Amino acid sequence: MNRYLAYGLCILLALLSLALSFQWPAWGWPAALFGVLALLGTWDLLQTRSTLRRNYPVLAHFRYGLESVGPEIRQYFIEGDTAEVPFSRQQRSLVYQRAKGVMDVVPFGSQQDVYSVDYEWINHSLAPTQVDSHDFRITIGAGTAQPYSASVFNISAMSFGALSANAIRALNEGARRGGFYHDTGEGSISPYHLEHGGDLVWEIGSGYFGCRDEQGRFSEERFVQNARLPSVKMIEIKLSQGAKPGHGGVLPAAKVSPEIAATRGVPIGHDCVSPARHSAFSTPVELLQFVARLRELSGGKPTGFKLAIGHPWEWFGIAKAMHETGLLPDFIVVDGAEGGTGAAPAEFIDHVGVPMHEALLLVHNTLVGLKLRERIRIGAAGKIISAFDIARTMAMGADWCNSARGFMFSLGCIQSQSCHNDRCPTGVATQDPTRWKHLDVGDKSVRVQHFHDNTLKALRDMLCAAGLEHPQQLGPEHILRRVSPIEVRSLAMLYRFLEPGELLDRIPAHAVFQQFWSEARSDAFSPPARVRALQDSKC
């Protein structure tokens, strides 16, 4: 009966305190406290929803209290400096230091285990180079009417609604100061995106927010109104998102504020639905036709799409459609499964979609094999924080990198993982004005700029140490990985890289291409007949 001891003591102390309060009024406070606890224990016994509370009246609430602060206790007192959950203290500290412009050097030695399997590094040169500028840029949409010169490091897609008004303001002003772009996310272009005039990439998802009619279908008229804004530099069609690919979403009616309704073009007081798939196209060819149409409607701005790789035959179908029709996107952004989100089902975050490294390599290889790589730029996103992350990603085939959570850290995010409950303690990922109004836009925008600039300075120094002058010179031969305690391989040796035009002549000796390339179709996203037959055989 020890499990009822706390409840019994509360009753006993409540009665004792009550009796003493008649003689000494100060005992009224303990009487009230223990009385409340006694009532709580009584309710625990009478309720039927929680067995734990019925078996441990009063005591169960101490467990709930400790459980609620468990993440904070682990983060501040237990978690190691290099434990990535999802970002390590070391990674977060690096962003904070660079954002604040304070010393980011490390004393004494590396905390990484350089002899552990999967440890990676870049080799240095005995003839290092000297590069003055860290403003590394690439041109996207060289053949369009309005090509864009992009930094190799930019702000990844985060919508107004997921982020607060002041967070959007600070990110955009930081992007303007630093000369890099700010992806709007699929929540469309809010007034806060436009206040400071930073470069925008307008992301258009399946809900067509900002360019939809009353039925939720794509509207050319409304698209043109936003696409031709001077701040909008590129158009990005979102096919899928790394953190929750193939999953739609619903913003409940109660959360559709007048601001969000005006930004997204949806009615106030109604559920705001993002379908799992697009309605403007249904085949790879139609997707490319949609890309070409948006480019034309935007006045010739670079237009492409973002996707998380799933079934390889679907990506192969898009690639075949490019080859067969000659309709090409100006860019493709590859979003890895390790990417972040404000809220997603646990199974989607943990077990759906291809991680960035493999997804990027597949997209890069396919375009090289079709001799299209020189005509299509590739961006990549997925837990990119440091200069080495950028270098490794570009060595595997990316032309530039995007980061979302890295720039959130630069705003002051402490990884409390409260993005989904509107209680973000730093005012970054909340719509609660009592929280986000305390985020100082002027201060945080400077930190956003500093994080970008100092990271690219570190990238420049790393390139110089490797004897290079621009990150586009990086290749898989520059990155080394330990594959066992006594074996090291370059990424060029570990992965199969296709030769230019190889897919035009034959199917390469690569497992994924061998399995799915020949059966992929440009006129449908449906699985090959062999895969369909296998699926049907299990019904």
Q: Would you kindly provide a written description of the structure presented here, covering whatever features stand out?
A:
The structure is a single chain. The two termini are 53 Å apart. The model has no long low-confidence stretch (mean pLDDT 92). The protein is an alpha/beta fold. Helix 6 crosses helix 16 (405-411). It has an 8-stranded parallel β-sheet. It has a 3-stranded antiparallel β-sheet with strand order 1-14-15. A two-stranded antiparallel sheet has the order 2-3. It is built from 22 helices and 15 strands. The longest helix is centred in the last third of the chain and has 25 residues, at 441-465. It has helices spanning 5-21, 28-46, 51-55, 59-68, 70-78, 89-100, 165-178, 191-194, 220-227, 258-264, 284-297, 312-325, 346-351, 356-369, 387-395, 405-411, 433-436, 441-465, 491-494, 502-505, 511-516, 529-536, and strands at residues 120-122, 137-140, 148-151, 153-155, 182-183, 200-204, 232-238, 249-251, 272-274, 303-307, 331-335, 377-381, 400-403, 479-484, 487-490. The radius of gyration is 27 Å and the shape is globular.
Q: Tell me how many strands there are.
A: 15
Question: Strands of the biggest beta sheet: in what spatial order?
Answer: 4-13-12-11-10-7-6-5
Supply Rg.
27 Å
Span of the ends, CA to CA: 53 Å
Helices and strands in order:
Layout: H1 5-21, H2 28-46, H3 51-55, H4 59-68, H5 70-78, H6 89-100, E1 120-122, E2 137-140, E3 148-151, E4 153-155, H7 165-178, E5 182-183, H8 191-194, E6 200-204, H9 220-227, E7 232-238, E8 249-251, H10 258-264, E9 272-274, H11 284-297, E10 303-307, H12 312-325, E11 331-335, H13 346-351, H14 356-369, E12 377-381, H15 387-395, E13 400-403, H16 405-411, H17 433-436, H18 441-465, E14 479-484, E15 487-490, H19 491-494, H20 502-505, H21 511-516, H22 529-536
Parallel strand pairs: 4-13, 5-6, 6-7, 7-10, 10-11, 11-12, 12-13
Antiparallel strand pairs: 1-14, 2-3, 8-9, 14-15
Helix pairs in contact: 1-2, 6-16, 6-18, 7-18, 11-12, 15-18
